Each structure stands twice: as structure tokens, then as C-alpha cells.
Amino acid sequence: MNSLLIDCIGELVTNDGRGGDPLGVRRDAALLVEDGRVAWVGPARYAPAAGRRVDAAGAAVLPGFVDSHAHLVFAGDRAAEFAARMAGEPYTGGGIRTTVGATRAASDDDLRATVGRLRAEMRRQGTTTVEIKSGYGLSVADEARSLRIAAEFTEDTTFLGAHVVPAEYADRPDDYVGLVCGPMLAAAAPYARWIDVFCERGAFDADHARAILTCGQAVGLGVRLHANQLGPGPGVRLGVELGAASVDHCTHLTDADVAALAGSETVATLLPGAEFSTRSPYPDARRLLDAGVTVALATDCNPGSSYTSSMPFCVALAVREMGMTPAEAVWAATAGGAAALRRTDVGRLTVGARADLVVLDAPTHLHLAYRPGVPLIRHVLHNGVPR
Ligand SMILES: [Zn+2]
After folding, report:
1. Is the separation of the CB atoms in 223 and 245 below 8 Å?
2. Element (H or E) spanning 348, and its range?
3. Which residues of the chain are modeled with pLDDT < 70?
């Protein structure tokens, strides 16, 4: 029988959305996996027979983390830039061009090896779904190959040709936007599910972002947006207007931005690893949650502004620095990430969902924030397969 029973679960986080508890916690529970899907959830004493059995020994079991924002296709690192920033230099986003140079010079195999290494690192920390962006190629060929490689690791690939204007187009950004909307999009679209723009002073303004995102929508890509990270700006409201699945960062928001998000289907994805790594003020998650906005947490894993692959670290930061309760942070790192990717098959442990889960070395999800920096992931199941 191709079935696996996770038995003796002390605390099962289902995110089933029932009963006023967003985490849908069940105690003394069991969960049956068949053919990579959750087939049954219930009290341990009623657990059905299965081909194999894992004894959780009273530990907490959670949906695998859904990291909805990561930049994994790159070469080189920027440790020296990080050190300089910690010594007082400001973050401007200009270092992206350093990574573009290294990425263009790298072989396909080098890029593939880096994505594979980071993907494995993420899985060891409980991440079972990850979105991967391009954005360090910034030429037709390099963006297409970045997405082709990303697509070997995830179905949630994002075309971010509009990350920054590359040096060779520095004096003619309109021409670069034309390239992104034309031949680059045509080459990238077969490998992409999403399109994204870094809408920020020093990157792309609202007119450019709107042009690029609507071109992407016209060829069937879903919209997501880097917005309001370094200062206030039009990105969040543009994202809501275009029906973006998610606007990401949301560090500098006006009341109008918050109201627009609250009345929309757009998720606010917060990336506290970026504020940590750039020593910047954190976004105010409490304000968003109190307004009724759906909030997700993600790592923003990238070699410049947030070189962490750890969702547990982001959960701990969100609780300590952003006003989230541990339950809200765990929901945002699982179901919230799924909402940001418009996925209903992950981020929850309900019958029919993908059997993506983590068994913690802890009795409760509270330990993710209570014990920061501690490796609490004991087992990971991805598609029902132990990893
Ligand atoms: Zn990013």
C-alpha cells in the first residue's frame, strides 16, 4: 500500500480555516498520506492502517513553508557589500548590477548548481514550495536561460527582466523597457508563470512598471510587484489596480495604500530578511493585519539584500520586530505564501492538499519564534516523500 501515517502528532496545524482559529490546530492527531496527497486527518485514536508509519512522538506538525519570493538564479556573492553596509553604508539597490555581471559570465551548470544548493538548503529548513525569479540576466538570452533553469526546480517561476536597468541601457531606460516588453518577454514567457517589476526610485517608475506588467498580462502571466521597499511610492496601488496576486516588501505605506490592499485580493508579502540585512526599519505587519489585509512572509533570498533561505528565521523576525503573533506569522509563512501564489494545493494540511509538511523538534509552532536560530525541523515530507 502506497500510504504513510504520521501518528501521535501533539499539535497539528492544518490551516483549515474553520472554527475561528486560523491555524486550525488539532491536538493528539494523525494524518494519512496516499499518493502524495493528504488522504485523512483526525484524532490519533481513530487513525487508519497504512503501509508505513512515522511516530511524531507528540511533536508539532505544520504545512511545509511556502516561500513566495526568492531570487535564486545568480552567481557570485556580495559578502563584502554586506560588511560595508554594516559599517554604515546605505543600501541603494545598485549592487544588483554586480550580480548581473557575475551571472552573465556563469555557465548554465554553475547557475543550476547554485539553485540546487539553495533549494536543498531551503528544504532542510522546512520549505516545500518556492517561487524563483529571474532578474540577474537582463538580456534576452540570459533572462530566458535563468527562467529555463528555474523551471527545473519549481512551477512558480517569475520573469523579473525589470529588476534594474542594466548598465548598457543606463542612458536610455525607455529602450530597455521596450526590450523587456518585446523580445525579452517573448523569450521568457514560455518558462514563466508570473511577471514582476522592481517599482522603486532608482529602478522602474509607475509608467514603466504599468507598461511591463500589462504586456505580461497580455501573454497570460500573473502579476506580482516589488513595491514600497525603500520609500513611499505608487507601486502598491498600481499592483492592486492591476489585480496583482501580491505586492512585496510594503515597508513604506500610506493610509491609502493600506486601504487599497484591504479592499482587494492582493496579498501583502513582507520580507523581513531584507530589513534585517540592510539594517532598515521593518514593515508594520500589525497595521496591515488590523486593516484586514492578507499578509504573507517570504525570505527574498538573494545575494545582496537578504541572503537567508530560512523561513523559520523570517517567522521569528516577524514576531519580534513586526507585531505579528506566532500564529499569524506561521499562517503567513504557509497559507499566506500559498495565497500570494494563488495556490490552493499547498500551505494547508486538509484532505486533498499536497502532502507537504514538516515535523518539528518541538511540541508547538510557538517554538519557531520562541527559539530563533535553532534547527527545529526534524522531518520534511514533500509530495508525500520523506526528504
Ligand atoms: Zn526581491
Report:
1. yes
2. none
3. 1, 92-94
Domains along the sequence of the chain with CATH: 3-63+348-386 (2.30.40.10), 65-340 (3.20.20.140)
Give the CA distances from residue 59 to residues 33, 80, 221, 350, in Å, rounded to whole numbers and listed in that order.
Answer: 18, 40, 40, 19
In this prediction, residue 1 carries a pLDDT of 58
Do the Cβ atoms of 247 and 265 come closer than 8 Å?
A: no
- Looking only at the bridges linking them, the beta strands covering 194-199 and 222-227 are parallel
What ranges in the chain are assigned the alpha helix state H?
Answer: 79-86, 96-105, 108-124, 140-150, 173-179, 185-188, 206-218, 235-241, 255-262, 272-278, 285-290, 311-321, 326-331, 337-340, 367-370
Using alpha carbons, select from 132, 148, 56 the residue that is nearest to residue 299. Answer: 132
Which residues have a beta carbon within 5 Å of ligand 1, which is an ion?
A: 300
Rounded to the nearest angstrom, the distance between the alpha carbon of 50 and the centre of ligand 1 is 42
pTM of the model: 0.97
192 neighbors 158 (Cβ within 8 angstroms): yes
Helix 140-150 with 96-105: angle, nearest 10 deg: 80
pLDDT of residue 179: 98
Alpha carbon of 300 to ligand 1 centroid (Å) = 5
C-alpha cell belonging to residue 1: 500500500
CA of 53 to the centre of ligand 1 (A): 40
**First CA to last CA across the chain, in angstroms?**
20
- What 8-state DSSP symbol labels residue 301? B
Distance 67 CA to ligand 1 centre (A): 12
Query: Is the separation of the CB atoms in 194 and 135 below 8 Å?
Result: no
5 CA → ligand 1 middle, Å? 37
CA 28 / ligand 1 centre spacing (Å): 39
- Find out whether 266 and 247 touch, Cβ atoms under 8 Å: yes
Q: What spacing in Å lies between the alpha carbon of 70 and ligand 1's midpoint?
A: 6
